[in-house]
Specification:
The complex is a heterodimer of chains A (479) and B (223). Chain A is α/β, with parallel strands linked by helices and 479 residues long. Helices cover 24% and strands 35% of the residues of chain A. In chain A, strands 5, 6, 8, 10, 11, 13, 15, 16, 18, 20 and 22 form an 11-stranded mixed β-sheet that branches. In chain A, strands 4-3-7-9-12-14-17-19-21-23 form a 10-stranded mixed β-sheet. In chain A, strands 1-2 form a two-stranded antiparallel ribbon. In chain A, α6 packs across α7. Chain A starts with a helix and ends in a 5-residue tail after the last helix. Chain B has 223 residues and is an alpha/beta fold. Chain B has a 6-stranded parallel β-sheet with strand order 1-3-5-7-9-11, with no helix packed on it. Chain B has a 6-stranded parallel β-sheet with strand order 2-4-6-8-10-12, with helices on one face.
């Protein structure tokens, strides 16, 4: 036991690896939220009138909404007037087109090289620092195939028709409290368009970094996969260690046209707060995909290890006949973290298929909930859903919860749900210990095995990182 | 709504079968507290025609308490059935098992909400729940919300829920052996709900209910 305690002590004092702050000159707008602030954000981004109107409309809707309280979360009061809604690193006036070396070094440190020659072969990156996109790599290579991959604010200027056509077509402005807030104040994010019949030759990825103190990040991502196209999209995120809570309220919209295939993967590693639950990111995001055309396919994979509080339900609306969707999730909570995450599968079309695999792991004093909706409407003939939600408890002070909602109105469709809750068996631990594998490593090994079904779905570059992350997140939880 | 609060003393056994039939809509509930080593066996049966709203609140308050809660609902026309279960494991070493099965057709709607809560420190809990429905028409609806809230780690808990249709392979098998499609369906439905009745200890009562349910299925869904 004493050895365990030693490990515990060592680990709990270990710092969050990405918790550093980059010292760059930044420009901020004043704290608070009102129509003038929104006009200011819009002006700073040199946006057209229609987008400003869109923002103001969203803001007016948001003002009438209340913070949702149905989740199994204990969210402290958030003062929305105490947040800076826009922060950007200042451009060097002498080298206006180049990336600030300081920022480059930051992303380098995070393992996200902004130089194409150095980059991992086959991954194009859009790096977002606070409220602006710093650099998007491989744009020329992609544009040869007609693929658009650029910061959202640039897309507004260069492809206004496309943006206007698809913006808020999946997540309406007034969809929920945080989506409305995001629609009003969103800063940068990525825009991605894959033309008809094109198979994207490399992984596209966005990397989000919160740096500035007292700010929130409100990114907006829009992915459109035209007929018979394919794209694999990755998303990663980190933030510095701070005692205050910072808000991250993103909206991701995905449109999948006839026969197209989109794979969306997330490795979420926002700062989770310290062992006593001080600080950390509030991750309240709305992610939704629309399988619009016949035979379209959307696959979500998420590894959630960070954030003080996670409120996230990547969902799919299966509108096209024969469309299908999957949701693979591993959510790890430790110390005082709280997570309420899951998915929604709305079956509207005929012969639609969905599959949900969710693996929750709770340790320390954390609370981890799965919440998922499967709805089959009466016209969705021969639809099929299978959900499996497993929870693993490590320690006796944490909680694991499962809240599925199953609604079937079609007699030819079948919905199945099963959930189990268990702990790491003493036998397995003993077996490992006996063979010279320490308790920490043994837990890591068992957890990785438990989450394997999901980790295997991640693209290679992410899978390695995710495995490591899982190990780190659970360190200090045994004893 | 009639509220019945029942306290089952240490080592005692409580059994109840609640049968609802007839056209009237009614609501009922049971509030049970189980002391150490106590056992409760409750079966709910909703026959065609009955629209029922039923609430069960069960507290396992003493070690080694055991609760078995099951139900059958047969809704061929326009019935509305609403079942709510709150199963609370307050102390260690208790077991609970829930099985709810039903057949839903016509314009009926069934809502099932079943929550298992394992309070902090309630180690060695075993709690299971299953809710399976057969949905036979596109105008009927089944909403099911099986919920698990667990605050202890040394537990075995699971829930399962399905909403589906009758297996066509089984029907084919029976038809090749000279059983008509209507009869095959009736047999399938009977065998689907029958396991729920196994928990009734009194044999005479069980046989009687079995017969009633068989007739109800034949008359309600066998057409």
């Amino acid at each position: 036991m004493s050895e365990n305690k030693e490990i515990l002590k060592e680990i709990t004092t270990k710092e969050y690896e990405h918790g550093f702050v980059t010292d760059v000159e930044q420009e901020f707008i004043p704290k608070g939220l009102n129509e003038d602030i929104i006009r200011l954000i819009s002006m700073k981004k040199e946006e057209p009138q229609w987008l400003l109107d869109f923002r103001l409309d969203a803001f007016r809707k948001w003002q009438k909404m209340k913070m949702p309280s149905w989740a199994h979360l204990n969210i402290p009061e958030i003062d929305f007037q105490d947040i800076i809604y826009f922060a950007a690193p200042k451009k060097d006036s002498e080298r206006p087109t180049e990336v600030d070396p300081e920022l480059e070094a930051t992303f380098e440190k995070l393992g996200i090289p902004l130089h194409e020659r150095k980059a991992l072969a086959g991954v194009a990156v859009d790096a977002v620092f606070d409220s602006v996109s710093v650099k998007t790599t491989f744009r020329e290579t992609l544009s040869e195939k007609g693929i658009i991959f650029c910061p959202f604010s640039e897309a507004v200027k260069e492809y206004p028709d496309l943006v206007r056509k698809y913006l808020a077509s999946v997540v309406p402005v007034g969809d929920n409290f945080y989506a409305a807030l995001n629609s009003a104040v969103f800063s940068d994010g990525s825009f991605c368009y894959i033309p008809k019949g094109v198979r994207c030759p490399m992984e596209l990825s966005s990397y989000f970094r919160i740096n500035a103190k007292g700010t929130g990040q409100f990114e907006r991502t829009l992915i459109v996969a035209d007929e018979d196209s394919y794209v694999s999209y990755l998303e990663g995120c980190t933030a510095p260690m701070r005692d205050e809570n910072q808000l991250h309220a993103a909206v991701v919209e995905i449109v999948v046209e006839k026969g197209a295939d989109v794979k969306y993967s997330t490795v979420q590693n926002w700062y989770p707060g310290d062992t006593e639950g001080r600080g950390g990111i509030f991750n309240f995001v709305t992610k939704r995909g629309l399988c619009k055309g016949e035979g379209s396919h959307l696959s979500w994979t998420q590894v959630e290890t960070g954030s003080a509080i996670t409120w996230k339900y990547p969902s799919t609306v299966l509108k096209g006949d024969n469309s299908s969707s999957e949701f693979y999730s591993v959510a790890v909570t430790n110390n005082m973290q709280q997570a309420d995450t899951g998915t929604k599968m709305i079956h509207l079309g005929r012969n639609t298929r969905s599959r949900i695999i969710s693996k929750g792991i709770s340790a320390g004093r954390s609370q981890n909930s799965y919440r998922g909706l499967v709805r089959i409407v009466s016209k969705a003939d021969n639809s099929r859903n299978y959900s499996q939600c497993d929870s693993l408890l490590i320690g006796d002070r944490c909680g694991a919860h499962t809240f599925p909602y199953i609604e079937n109105s079609n007699s030819s469709s079948v919905v199945e749900h099963e959930a189990t809750t268990s702990k790491i068996s003493e036998e397995q631990l003993f077996y490992c210990n006996q063979r010279g594998i320490g308790p920490e490593d043994a837990v890591g090994l068992i957890v990785n095995g438990y989450a394997r079904e999901v980790l295997d779905k991640l693209p290679m570059e992410f899978a390695v990182e995710a495995r490591k992350l899982l190990q780190v997140s659970l360190e200090g939880s045994v004893g | 709504m009639s509220e019945n609060k029942i306290i089952v003393g240490a080592g005692e056994v409580f059994g109840k079968v609640m049968v609802f039939s007839g056209k009237a809509a009614c609501s009922d509930g049971l509030d049970i507290v189980l002391d150490a080593g106590a056992r409760a066996d409750v079966t709910l049966i909703v026959l065609p025609g009955a629209s029922v709203s039923s609430r069960f609140s069960i507290e396992l308050a003493g070690a080694d308490a055991d609760c078995r809660l099951s139900g059958i609902y047969l809704c061929p026309d326009g019935e509305k059935v609403d079942i709510r279960v709150d199963m609370k494991h307050l102390v260690p070493q208790c077991t609970s098992c829930q099985t709810f099965k039903g057949v839903v057709s016509g314009f009926s709607s069934v809502n099932f909400y079943g929550k298992i809560t394992v309070e902090p420190g309630s180690q060695k809990t075993e709690a299971y729940q299953a809710n399976h429905s057969l949905l036979l028409s596109d105008t009927a609806k089944v909403h099911t919300e099986p919920q698990l809230e667990i605050y202890a780690d040394d537990v075995k808990c699971s829930h399962g829920a399905t909403v589906g249709k009758l297996n066509e392979d089984e029907q084919f098998y029976m038809r090749t052996r000279g059983i008509s499609l209507e009869d095959a369906k009736v047999l399938q439905m009977i065998s689907f709900v029958a396991p729920v009745l196994d928990g009734i200890a009194d044999e005479a009562q069980r046989m009687k209910l079995h017969e009633e349910i068989e007739n109800a299925i034949r008359n309600g869904f066998g057409k």
